[in-house]
Structures are given as structure tokens and as C-alpha cells.
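Much of what follows relies on a compact textual record of a protein's fold. A complete example follows; check for yourself that the lines match position by position.
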Amino acid sequence: MARVVLEHVNKVFHGPTGEPVHAVRDITLDIGDGQLVVLVGPSGCGKTTTLRLIAGLEDLTAGTISIDGRVVNQMRPKERDIAMVFQHHALYPHMTVYDNMAFALRLRKRPKAEIDSRVREASELLGLSGLQDRLPEALSGGERQRVAVGRAVVRHPKAFLLDEPLSNLDPPMRTQMRLELKQLHERLAATMVYVTHDQIEALTLGDNIVVMNQGAVQQIGCPMAVYQSPANMFVAGFIGSPPMNFANGVVEAQGGACFFRFAETDGTLRRDAKALQLPDGLSKRLLPHGSQRVIMGLRPEDMVPVSQAGSEDTDTTLEAVVELVEPVGPDLHLHMNALGWRSVWRWPLKSLPRRGEELRAQVAMSHARFFDPDTGRAIVLD
């Protein structure tokens, strides 16, 4: 396996009238030997283009890419010793599972015994041993995708590049394949770069995740660090389901304590809304931003039912009215209105509130995140 390094990588396409389209903007990324790194972001953010640049399927506009210590900018895809798995498995319909997996090795004129050994080893690894004589039309979607992965595994490449390989599978099969890919990575100790728009896949699969938007990297880190301490409002709103709730407000100091007071977008204080007290540690770090406009972010799970929190009305208790109830299996997503501030709360399934009902929640203010309203960047990072 190999380390993959991108340094100040840029890619500019040209539109129909020659206008520049900056698809990838100054990306610097170090993917360690044996790591599984996930590029995640919305459609059009540049993640697939970045993957294609690593593979050599697109030419760089600027920057360098190195694989296993060698700069590969001028190397053709087949010289880079990488293997790709695409969204569409693209198996040869007239070939059996065995022949599909062996095809690339035969092109390279590998010895027959070596081909057979590699194919059977990969088949056993992927649970395909009993399917080697079948044609693709006789396989399920998940089995076909396993064959596509196996076709890459038999090559023993320096790095695997996976471009949304689970997008065409139904939800149960996606969950199963996600588990199998994670186990495969652990068994192979392989360097993998995985592209997805699905933030659940990113959080569950990646050793590190790279959040992208508009061609640029927004944040790099281990999944839970990115989830708990987003670098900006885009990351906070993209990672997490439901996404983080945002509220305009001002941090005020009162009698030795700090409070978040809700405000309009122009900074006008809403005296009718309750001020929420900040814990001491967070207060000290936010004091330099006192009386300035800020945006507070709270995850849906940071709203804890008062009875569950074991306390009555406090300086972190919030009342709101239910506008919509979404049952999502193990819990509820409640769309709430707190005197004009709309948010989503994650609520236990054992209670089933009705529309129009007023609920009280203890707000976990120690988990609150604060952002600059002009730049969207986090003000306080752990």
C-alpha cells in the first residue's frame, strides 16, 4: 500500500463560452499508508474530480500528486498502480464472476496459477466463492458490487479509489455493504480514498473525512471531531442528520455569568425570548465576543426532555411549540417553534407529542457551538 499526497491541487474546466469553472481549489491533503479517507460533500463540490485527478483520468491545472513517494502528474492511469471502483459496477455481461475478476490480470499476462490464486482469495474474502460460475445477470445488486470490488482487490494495487460505489443499492443492502467495506479495509490494511455525498457513510467508514464545498476543503479530521467541532456553518449543517440548528443572537455578561440572548438577523435583541446561560468554561472563551452578533449552533440531541434531565425550569430550559412530528424509528424528530426560532429536536419515542403541544427541554449549552455571522467560521473550537 502507499501514501497519497496532494499539494495545492487545482483543476479548472472551461464552459461553453470559454469561461473558467474552478472545480477543485488549492487542495492539500495527506492520506497516510493504510488509511481510509472519505471525501464527502454535496453534488458538484469537486470530490469526484479530485478522485479522478488522483487516478489520472483528469489533467491537473496546478499542483502535484504523489503516490508512494513518486510524483505522478505525468503518469498515465495504468502506470499509477491504483484500482477504481465506480458507482456503476460495469461488469462484462458475457463473462462469469471468475472471468470478470481475472480479466485485468490476464491482460497483464500474469501466470495462470497466480491469477487463480488471487481470484479465489478475493472471492473468499468477499463471500463470492459459490458464485464464480454465474453471469452478472444472475447476481443481486450487492453481489455485482462485490464483484466490482473483487476485480480491484485481485490487482493488489497501491491504492483503492471508490467513487460512490453504494449509491445504486437499496438502504438495507447499502448498510450491509458499508459493513463489508469497513471489514475489507481492516483485513487488507489498504489505502483507500472513498467518495460519497452521504454523510452517514462518511461518519461510519472513514478514518478521516474531508468535507468539501464549491471545490474547496472545508474541514479535515476524524469523523466524531468533525461532528462535534465543525469548523464552519457549512460543515455543521452538512454533517449530521438532522443537521445542526442555528440561532441568531448576542452573548451578554450579567452578574458574573454569560448568556446567549436570541436576536433578529440584524442583531436586534428579542427581549421576549429567554436568555440561555452558558457554562463557565465556554463563557470565558466567548467573553471577547460579548455584545457582538453571533450564531449559536445546537444539535437536535442537545434538547433533552426536562423530565429526562431530572430538573425543573432553569436558565437553560427552553419552551417551544410542536409544529410537526416525524417518527423515524427509535425516536422522533420534532419541528419546534420557540417564539419564532424554529429548530428540530430529537425526542424519545415513548412520548408522542401532538401538533400545537408545548414542550420544555433542557438545552445542553456545554455542547453549543458559536459562529461568526459574517464569515460562518467557528468562533470557539475545542
Observations:
- The mean pLDDT is 90.
- The longest helix spans residues 171-188.
- The chain has ten helices and 20 strands.
